[in-house]
Amino acid sequence: MPTIVVGGRAYECPPGATLLEGLEAHGVPMRSSCRAGSCQSCMVRAVSGDVPEAAQAGLKATLRARNYLLACVCRPTGDMEIVTDDDAITRVPAEVVEIGELTPDVMSIRLRPEAPYEYRAGQFLRLYRDDQTSRCYSLASVCELDRDIELHVTRVPQGQVSNWIHESAHLGQTMTISEATGNCFYVPGKPEQPILLVGTGSGLGSLLGIVRDALRQGHTGPIRLYHGTLRRDGLYGADRIAPLAHEHPNLRYVPCVLREEAPPEGSQGSVVQVALTQNQDLTGWRVFLCGDANLVAGAKREAFLAGASMDAIHADPFLPS
Ligand SMILES: Cc1cc2nc3c(=O)[nH]c(=O)nc-3n(C[C@H](O)[C@H](O)[C@H](O)COP(=O)(O)OP(=O)(O)OC[C@H]3O[C@@H](n4cnc5c(N)ncnc54)[C@H](O)[C@@H]3O)c2cc1C
To answer: If one looks up domain 195-318 in CATH, what number appears?
Structure first.
């Protein structure tokens, strides 16, 4: 049984358990959120021992080189010593410069970082309520086009961070954010490739950022954007998408409403079903999925079955912490 040393104490990690599970079983306090190797909340650094390759998947080369790893997907193969310091993640203060209501449940918040802040549209950051409490939010802005960072935040009933943002965010306030991370973004190189984007609720934010980024970089292939909500008042963004679609006829936007009648340009029904019925063969397509975690998981499967290759499907499930 591998022995894990952390904070000067040794703990045994049960065979097959992840580092995160093994340490939590001994009551070691560990940060975690998605527990699926995506959000990077559980990043730690190995001081000694072999780091399994899978534990570093998705990390920047600079972090890999420094032996950082994700505890939630690390299954130790031998003894390790780790440090759980937070040095791996740069925190940046950012001023709240604009707040807006997008729907009764979703607000937009614009932040102006106090230091240069680089990101790719569609990545996500962590927003800290305090030292111990943070949540991931996707970037709805485009670094090269927008002066400020934009986030779209859905209020979750009793949610510690989303409610705090909805109730207390105010102009001039300084918030703390992490650097941006994640792999759900547009990579140039195949300008004619068709792109399908499917999102729910505030998942529209990062999809819209990805669309603007793709168009900015000269994407000429069809871009189909499907946004799903339960009720009609959950739709937003048409005022920004319409001018884009006017300027770029390769962009098509379809709002989908599950439980009420859809607007004339949209469809009633499940956003995944509508998107996959209207685009039945996804062979050679690039696919972006964002929002509700169950829906994203189902959509990923459906897109694969419709012909999209797994490495062309980019997903950002909004997994609760
Ligand atoms: C990569 C990533 C990107 C994300 N991007 C966004 C984004 O752009 N916009 C956004 O609004 N959110 C996003 N999320 C979700 C966000 O990180 C938080 O999980 C969400 O805001 C709830 O946090 P909270 O502190 O308010 O609720 P918590 O205090 O964590 O949870 C309160 C209760 O609500 C439940 N709960 C939490 N989330 C949900 C949910 N989505 N649906 C139903 N029940 C839930 C919890 O299980 C708990 O019982 C993202 C998540 C990930 C992992």
So the answer is: 3.40.50.80
Tell me the C-alpha to C-alpha distance, in Å, between residue 256 and each of 195, 240, 290: 18, 17, 15
CA of 229 from ligand 1 middle (Å) equals 16
Q: What is the CATH number of domain 3-83?
A: 3.10.20.30
pLDDT digits (tens, 9 = 90+) for 248-284: 999 999 999 999 999 999 999 999 999 999 999 999 9
In Å, what is the CA distance from 134 to each residue of 62, 128, 248? 24, 4, 38
Please give the Cα distance from 137 to 128 (Å, whole number): 11
Ligand 1 binding pocket (C-beta < 6 A) is 33-34, 38-39, 124, 135-138, 152-154, 156, 158-163, 202, 205, 316, 318-321
Say whether pTM exceeds 0.85. Answer: no
Calculate helix-pair angle for 293-305, 271-278, nearest 10 degrees.
Answer: 20
Pocket test for ligand 1, best of 102, 103, 123, 136 (most atoms within 8 A of CB): 136
Residue closest by Cα to atom 43 of ligand 1 = 156
- Quote the mean pLDDT of the chain: 93
Q: Name the residue type at position 261.
A: E
> Averaged over 225-245, what is the pLDDT?
97
In this prediction, residue 85 carries a pLDDT of 62
Region for 37 from its dihedrals, namely left if φ exceeds 0, alpha if ψ lies in -120 to 50, beta otherwise: left
Please identify, by atom number, the ligand 1 atom nearest to the C-alpha of residue 319: 53
Q: How far is the CA of 321 from the centre of ligand 1 (A)?
A: 6
Domain definitions of the chain by residue range: 3-83, 91-178, 195-318
Ligand 1 centroid to Cα of residue 220, in Å, is: 34
Is the pLDDT at 96 greater than 70? The verdict is: yes
Fold of 91-178: Elongation Factor Tu (Ef-tu); domain 3 (2.40.30)
- Write out pLDDT tens, residues 147-192: 999 999 999 999 999 999 999 999 999 999 998 888 789 989 999 9
